[in-house]
Amino acid sequence: MPDKLGWRANWGVVAPSTNTSVQPEFDEMRPRGVTNHMSRIYVPDEPLASDADFNKLMDAIRLEWDNAILRVMTCNPDYLVMGMSSETFWGGLTRANELKAHMTGMTRLRVAMDPTPARRQSDATATSRKLACSHRTGRWPTKMSPFSSTTADSKLWP
After folding, report:
1. Does residue 156 form part of some domain?
2. 16 forms bridges with which residues in the sheet?
3. Which residues, including other chains, have CB under 8 Å from residue 122's CB and lie 6 or more apart?
4. What is the pLDDT of residue 140?
5. Poorest-pLDDT segment among 61-65, 105-109, 152-156
6. Rounded to an integer, what distance in angstroms lies between the CA atom of residue 158 and that of residue 31?
7. b (16+ CB within 10 A) / e for 8-32
8. CA separation for the pair 52, 3 (Å, rounded)
């Protein structure tokens, strides 16, 4: 049976159970003909007072995210979106790339993640140079952009 609301695409969105903004933000940004299907990664709502606490939280998330992905895959999405950022920088760019490869391998779907903070962190020096140049000249260098071309997936919008 054809999908009346998701005639362009159905997106599987995985977010932490404690997150209260990803779902409403995705609902507001949803283009016509695309539907978002949320799956939650169980996250204990415990205080984080140290790096050790955060590491413990990340371990709990890693144990649960495959289950959240499997749950959302039952609606047969066309695309998978990771609606959390901590996993894209905790462990650096290498860990973020491993996670994306794992999700792609598990689902055989294209996967979107937060514009990798680990990559942005490594680009911070170049960006600060661009900002310094724009401050001196009063304009942004014409062949440079404040955003990496990797932050947008042109195939995301059918």
Report:
1. no
2. 41
3. 93
4. 43
5. 152-156
6. 10
7. ebbbbbbbbeeeeebeeebeeeeee
8. 45
- Structural tokens at position 89: 């920088």
Number of domains in the chain: 2
pLDDT of residue 86: 65
What percent of the chain stands above pLDDT 70?
66
User: Is the same domain home to 29 and 100?
Assistant: yes
What are 134's two structure tokens?
Answer: 């724009």
DSSP state of 157: -
Residue type, 73: M
- Express each pLDDT in 106-115 by its tens digit: 999 998 886 5
Enclosing domain of residue 98: 9-114
CB within 8 A of 62, min separation 6: which ones?
87
Question: What's the chain's Rg over C-alpha atoms?
Answer: 18
Residue 111 DSSP label: E
- Cα angle: 15, vertex 16, 17; to 5 degrees: 115
Q: How confident is the model at residue 47 (pLDDT cuts 50, 70, 90)?
A: confident
Query: What's the mean pLDDT when you consider all of the chain?
Result: 74
CA distance 133 to 140: 7
